[in-house]
Amino acid sequence: MRVFSGRERLPDNTFSYIDNDPLVAIKLINPSTGREKEALAYVDTGSDSIAIPKDVWDELNITSFRVTSISVVGGAITTWYTKLDVEFLGKLHKNIIVFYQEMGDVLLGRAVIDNYAVTFDGLNSTLTISKK
Amino acid sequence: MLKKTEFEAKANKIYESNKKDWESRYYGKVIAIDLDSEKLAAVADSLLEVDKLIDRLCPDHKVLVRRVGEKQTVARVFRA
Q: pTM of the entire structure?
């Protein structure tokens, strides 16, 4: 998991890439326990919702979850999912489906980012996110 | 945490025993298989809709959510 840290914020909700990746700060909130976790999430248009690795899942003390089948690179897997609240750019998104994965990045997928206009500027390594 | 393999094995068994009926009625839909009652718990068009139905109908039951048909996945997570 990427470690949350401050970074330069450019004008108009434009963010510079971190380690050459389009990462944004989010806060994950377990509504059952109130447990919170800040993380840097990879803005991922290839994911339908959010995915979090085991360490984040454990830190959020998720005890209520169900099982489903999802498509991943290379095929399909059976995994757990739960619903969390997600704070992003000062807005709270409630009851977002969050999938468990053994390892990897926190992925911020379309369940959240479809509420925004997102522009990837690979030439300048910046990400611009505007509210609709 | 419960073992996924146990969930999968039991859900697959229930699915296979109802496959003909469910695929004729719900092909392409997202379903929740109730592992406690061994019955169909909910049917909808998406994972989120099915999950809301589970919350209402059998919130404390063990369920497995899948799509009916050959392609059983309900969502994509493409950066691993």
A: 0.90
